[in-house]
Amino acid sequence: MRKNPFDFSQVKLMSEYTPRKFETIAQVAQRLAITPNTVRRYIADGKLRTYGMSSRAIRLDAAEVDEAFTRTSA
């Protein structure tokens, strides 16, 4: 029996997704008590992922930032 290509039973509804909170470089720096240059260095090193439509409108996912700064080395 072929699988129905229009079977959406496993697809999440938009209401089921957790909304993401985005912050600017300045907001991240202020919240973590570090300088904006430190945040930019983490971005350049690939430790933080940025989101945005242009190089001037950079946003960072708050959950990803928290995860990056709370990792512990074993």
Quick synopsis:
With 74 residues, the protein is α+β, with helices and mostly antiparallel strands.
Which class best fits the helix and strand makeup? alpha+beta
Q: What general outline do the C-alpha atoms trace?
A: elongated
Summed over residues and divided by their number, the pLDDT gives a mean of: 84
Instruction: Evaluate the radius of gyration.
Output: 18 Å
Order of strands, main sheet, comes to 1-3-2
| Uncertain spans | none
Strand content: 5-15%
Rounded to the nearest angstrom, the distance between the terminal CA atoms is: 49 Å
Q: What do these coordinates show?
A:
A 3-stranded antiparallel β-sheet has the order 1-3-2. It has 74 residues and is of the alpha+beta class. The chain contains 3 helices and 3 strands; from the N terminus they run βααββα. 8% of the residues are buried.
Lay out the secondary structure.
Elements: E1 22-23, H1 25-32, H2 36-44, E2 50-51, E3 59-61, H3 62-70
Helix pairs in contact: 1-2
Note the main attributes of this structure.
alpha+beta, 3 helices, single chain, 3-stranded antiparallel beta sheet, 74 residues, elongated
